[in-house]
Amino acid sequence: MDYSKFILLTVLVAFIEESLAISCLVDQFSVKDGFDPKRYSGKWYALLKKDPEGLFLQDNISAEYFVDDKGTMTASSKGRVKLFGFWVICADMSAQYIVPDPGTPAKMEMAYQGLASYLSSGGDQYWVIDTDYDNYAITYACRRLKDDGTCDDGYALIFSRNPRGLPSTIQRIVRQKQEDICLSGQFEPVLQSGACP
After folding, report:
1. Distance CA 179, CA 58 (A)
2. How would you classify residue 97: left for phi > 0, otherwise alpha for psi between -120 and 50, otherwise beta?
3. By the 8 A CB rule, do 95 and 115 touch?
4. What does the alpha-carbon distance between residue 155 and residue 135 come to, in Å, rounded to a whole number?
5. pLDDT in tens, 127-186
6. What is the pTM of this model?
7. 141 pairs with which residues across the strands?
8. What span, in angstroms and rounded, lies between the C-alpha atoms of 91 and 63?
9. What is the spatial distance between Cα 52 and Cα 66, in angstroms, rounded to a whole number?
10. pLDDT(70) > 80
11. Which of 3, 34, 65, 173 is deepest in the core (most CB within 10 A)?
């Protein structure tokens, strides 16, 4: 390959990489417009997940959301987790959500606590990317940003009101939203066998 073709190819690759990075800027991801926590409340089952780095629930993940009279949302979550590489248990977690900007109620901060000493506690973003409240919800969190504004370590969950799955029409919406948050092809199925009722 001659030198001019090599330079052209290098410039083209750099342009494509920059274009992809720009479309994956976390602060440009859209979230559910006019998010209503009361309609969101109730039980959800995780069907697909994209794990973050470190310990994360592996299967039978469910979350039940509650909204009190003041509008504060809390949740209790369950799921199986593998500890020490061999010990599989059902873990309980609790969380409370704060909305820093009332103009964007779908962008929350989540403070969570494991209900046993070996489970972690801390805080993450909790963004509701999309939901129809009755069938599906897509949540997203970026734990660590790269210098270019894309996510270096994050996770996402696809929830359903039904542990057996989503209708095909909704699956198309979910696939599009996975692309919108730059996680297409990175999700794995979540087993729902009823192991953690």
Report:
1. 23
2. beta
3. no
4. 21
5. 999 999 999 999 999 999 999 999 999 999 999 999 999 999 999 999 999 999 999 999
6. 0.85
7. 155
8. 12
9. 25
10. yes
11. 65
With contact defined as beta carbons under 8 Å apart, do 139 and 157 qualify? yes
Q: Which residues pair with 33 in a beta bridge?
A: none
Distance CA 92, CA 112 (A): 11
Per-residue pLDDT tens for 1-59?
A: 565 554 545 544 444 444 444 589 999 999 999 999 999 999 999 999 999 887 688 99
CB 65, CB 74: distance < 8 Å: yes
Share of the chain above pLDDT 70, in %: 84
Tokens found for residue 123? 């805080």
List, for residues 51-60, the tens digit of each pLDDT value. Answer: 988 768 899 9
List the beta strands (DSSP E) in the chain: 42-50, 59-67, 73-83, 87-98, 107-114, 121-131, 136-145, 151-160, 188-189
CA distances from 192 to 59, 119, 137, 195, 197 (A): 7, 21, 16, 8, 10
Nearby residues of 40 by Cβ (< 8 Å), 6 or more positions away: 65, 67, 73, 128, 131, 133, 137
Q: Does the CA dihedral 83-85-90-94 come out positive or negative?
A: positive
Identity of the amino acid at 8: L
CA distance 37 to 34: 10
